[in-house]
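The step that takes the researchers longest sounds almost clerical: writing a folded protein down as plain text. The outcome of that step, for a single protein, is printed below.
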Amino acid sequence: MSTPADRLEEIKEKGLLRRMRTVESAQGARVRMDGEDVLLLCSNDYLGLTTHPAVTAAAVDAVERWGTGAGASRLISGNMRPHERLEGRLAAFHGAEAALLFGSGFLANTGIVAALAQRGQVVFSDELNHASIIDGCRLAGAETFVYRHRDLEHLAWGLGQNRGRAALIVSDGLFSMDGDVARLGWLRTLADRYGAMLMVDDAHAVGALGPGGRGSVAEAGLEGLVDVLVGTLGKSLASYGAYACVSAELRDLLVNTARPLIFSTGLPPASAAAAEAALAVIETQPELVDRLRANASTLRAALAANGLEPGGSGTQIIPLSIGDPDRATAACARALRDGVYAQAIRPPTVPEGTSRLRLTVMATHAEQELRNAARVIADAVDAVSADGEWSIDLPDPAPGALQVIRRPERAGAEVKSGA
């Protein structure tokens, strides 16, 4: 049996060892990190609201009125007025009957998938879904069919092979590592055709996509038509926690069956109050969402002008594929040395051979600093490209090739029980 030291050495040999960097200032477009002032191009605080005066004031006021913690599970004595008020505001924002708070996006996804999929049923999951969805599939008593990324033909084939057993189709709305958007209209059509529920994790899309920043579901014209919409409080809503927008009936079911909710302390009241204030800012200042989109376009154009090929589909998440994990790490370090923090993303977060720099834009970035950052990043990528080529293409499976997948991260086997 390998020891912790053996496992760490193996990770290091693969070029996958990670470390935490210390941020020595409040979050923002620019931060102080390891003693240096840097431009932050890897934050999920997309609208820059973590330091907005209305948001910080709401958090301070909530601490003074409600204290620092909920003290218990919400099913005991930890269900507090700030929780219920925020849930009402979130449901109204998304055009849903009800909303339910969770301790984090990871807890929400693992708990919801496991609660809604029962033994003998099948969950259908996009292969590039977030790790929390993958783990939710593993925890569920149901079987899991993982379909190729955004491949409707593959999904339809899997649904047809498991007719009458489909419990749930689950997908990211905006994919966190690739910056592309799920084909939600077709997912809704397939869910209806095969009698499945549709669950969308819109964590990265709320505040960034759709009318009023209401996310990819709203952009697809599906408000009120998705069975489960998961959002987060830790990105555009500038706080911590997560939520699910559902029917009143599904909310009652989750309250009684979602184990991460049942067995976790409720969110700190200040987290709920801060998120409610951030939501109010989004509703009253939609120009922030417009600025985020404009900044994403500015950075993409600047990267292209410097000879790079930004991936994704025009969103605020911009992947620059490099391939080799060591080269990706070296490019990140080189850019950071020159004052730009562009995070390297390596396996197991992304598939083998697809290491990349993952850039994220904020509404509070200035246009000129984004143009300057593009030059810094291009120089960093060029410096670590041994063959003069800065990127490789992400693998694209042959059209029409059908595979049934046993585990979310591995192809080539028949669908098996998740138990």
Remarks:
- The longest helix spans residues 287-305.
- The longest strand covers residues 166-172.
- DSSP finds 14 helices and 13 strands in the chain.
